[in-house]
Amino acid sequence: MDIVKAVQYYTNRIITDTSSMKVLLLDRETTPIISLVSTQTHLLSKEVYLVDRIENRQRDAMRHLKCVCFVRPTDASLQALRDELRSPKYGDYYVYFSNMLKKSMVEMLAENDENEVVREVQEFFADFYAVTPCLFHMGLEPSTHPLFAEGHSWNPGALGRTVQGLSAVLLALKRRPNIRYERNSAMAQRLGRELDYLMDHESSLFGSTTGNLTQLVILDRKNDPVTPLLTHWTYHAMLHELIGITNGRIDLSHVPDIRPESKEVMLAQDQDSFFKQSQFLNFGDLGVSVKEFVDSYQSQSQSHHKIESISDMKRFVEAYPEFRKLSGNVSKHVTLIGELSRLVSQRHLLAVSELEQSLACNEQHGTDLRALRALIANPKIQPENKVRCVVLYALRYEQTQGNAVNELKQLLSSNGVDADMVSIIDVMLRYGGARERQSDIFQNENIFSRGKNIFKGLQGTENVYTQHTPALAIMLEDLVRGRQGLHWQERLPNLDPNARPPMLGNENGMFNQDIVVFVVGGVTMEEEMAVAKLNAKFVTQNVRVVLGGTSIHNSRTFMSELSTTFFP
Question: What is this structure's pTM?
């Protein structure tokens, strides 16, 4: 179950099924879907002469070229395709849609193909954003696809897009899963029911569940609001948290003294061996890794300078494209890691993160409160980092008698924090407070879990900045090891009440199993790392997990999405 390879398969079919020179037309959403898994160089090698947007009406007519269109079946893209066919700029058109077509859409295309230029219409199910082999998302940005209508309910547009995207994931992976959902989440249950209805309605595409070992587990972000609020210290997570990654692209135009060619860089595992090897390294190990990378580049660079014969020249010319690519990757990662180091120092993130981890993992109210007061009073700490720490305090000590949430909100205001930012504290409690969660993520809701938490603290930790383990990682470990019990069966019921609870394995061994985990409300890079490590740990048992969400959050986007929603 490799999400990237699934989309690459469709991409290669799109550009190779049509021979000779061609133009590739994409829409606003399929452009990043393709760019995440392919490169301009690869497209050129498959005779793609030009890549453009179908909405662009200023393209030159080139009737001698064939045109391949890959678009989503949306009203906007269908209108652009209709306009294109009425006045075709190319000789033949091969049209591919990223999801299921309605009969009326096919009829509309036929009616507008007056010049009879359409040679083929197909459905290729690449209707999601494949970030890494085990991570995908639906691209639901608050500005374009608000997730919530009011409170814990779906915005209809977001629900429709998520059902379409998740069905495409399952079709791309050729799976029809048993569906489980978090019992306390109306949004997770609604998504499961809509998807189940679609699979029944399109049974010819999805097949049956007979003998099926695939599970789709639908979770709700509200049951773990802590993970997106923390500063994570692995390479991929830090880049997203501190700089921001949008569909594999990182904007560095704001970085002081940045070179023009480095103002935007791209991250992709299959194009960048250093990133593939280092994306889950913590910040300390990352410095060692990049130094070794630079040393390797320097040694290769020196060897290329020694050109003393014809054979040396031939070897250099053959290796030059790879050498140039290596040079670009070295420059990119040195720039990125340098910028991360600057931001960590500038924002005093080591001090912030130490308090975050204490609030997330340890029950020590007096100590935490004193540290939090000092942090809020420190003018060097950014306002958003102060608010994040108060939100973590409010979530952990919400039910503690004598908690100081109101005092801390006043302290934030008196230290110049904007009122809108302070208001997110109450929003977060209404969204993911103890009343809404069904899991004891802080292990402090009864005497038994408090005792477990105390012993956890006594055991110590390898790194004070990486104590926290996402709730999703703990859940998956229990499920894969067969430690389901009544607790997990109650928390994650099967959508079909008559279905037997699935058995993944037992303590003595595990069966072959594919699991798709989808988080309503967004996933994090830290959870991606947990899934990648789980896959590596159980690779010999053929346990395969992929993780997806409505979006990929960092702390800023998570709080921003919630701040625009009213939770009663």
Answer: 0.89
